[in-house]
């Protein structure tokens, strides 16, 4: 009797674990963004701008970034209008909206506006940072936001397994700071 109960519990446990899995035994499920490299990213910053504006057409963008958590990249767009702050997270490969959060506006936040035209400079600054880095370096993440009335582009590069951060003035494309 005890063996049957233990066997039944064991089978329930195994079935529960199986049901909780994602069914991807090979680990190559593209939809979950595993092992995506910077080069795999399909959406440009301009595409992400348009995606944000589809949901929040009367708002302005304060910050746009490409964040990396372990092996997963996400675009994060922060915007605002007269009443609300918005944060939209977008999958950079599929373009799917991961989350779209709204809060009452925080008037203490710097309220600069990033335009779509300004985003066209990002790719050249990514290339510039990689050119200034050691050979074999790669992009980890980047952000674009106003800092003391300067539209600052921060990019984190992995160089010999170390993080190196470059900060550029987006308008002039001049290097403001390099932090090892």
Q: How are the secondary structure elements laid out?
A:
Layout: H1 2-20, H2 45-55, E1 60-69, E2 72-80, E3 84-90, E4 97-104, H3 122-132, E5 138-147, E6 150-159, E7 162-169, E8 175-179
Antiparallel strand pairs: 1-2, 1-5, 2-3, 3-4, 5-6, 6-7, 7-8
What is the gyration radius calculated from CA atoms?
21 Å
Task: Spell the H/E element sequence.
Answer: HHEEEEHEEEE
Q: Report the mean per-residue pLDDT as an integer.
A: 84
Low-confidence stretches: 2-33
> Helical residue percent?
10-25%
Number of strands: 8
Looking at the overall shape, the CATH architecture is Roll
How far the N terminus sits from the C terminus, by CA atoms, comes to 66 Å
Can you tell me the CATH topology? Nuclear Transport Factor 2, Chain: A
Q: So how many helices? A: 3
CATH class: Alpha Beta
Question: Can you tell me the number of structural domains?
Answer: 1
**Shape label:** globular
